[in-house]
Amino acid sequence: MNSDSDLQIAGDIFEVSHLLQPAREHPATVAEFAGLARSIAADRAQWAHLVEYDATTRWYHRLRTGPGYEVWLLSWLPGQGSGRHDHGPSSGVLTVLDGELTEHSASGSRGLTPGAQRVFAPGYVHEVTNDTLTPAVSLHVYFPGLTDMPMLPQSQLRSTGGTPTSQCSPAQHKAASS
Question: Residue 151 in 3-state DSSP?
Fold first, then answer.
């Protein structure tokens, strides 16, 4: 697991089920949203058959909604990226399901492999890319549900704030780029 903190989990977290609380039907805390993402990631039958790949843009599928949150499934072909953005008023959990993604932020770049999770607060600026030669799949949980995704100039280096150049939700972004 990639992390900026001193806390590291050795081995497969799913093998220590007695340490994990079952995900509630409707999460309310950051830990519960991360747990929801982990439980969906562990159940490949729930999402693997839905994955599609689009050579012209990243592919999106809203997998689930709940009170105040959304769960999105995304696919990334080699070379595809999100562009530098934040998530407006939404917090989120990004979980890599397959392949490898790279997250670029003000604190640097980090490779994210299957099982890696990134939790972020509103206003967190980053760019996610598939810099490998193989496809990748990721799961994104947003609370509240994603209403806008301000795109920022590539020169934007601050980790919060900034003047958006455009705003769109994943569904709006997909429609605009189709």
Answer: strand
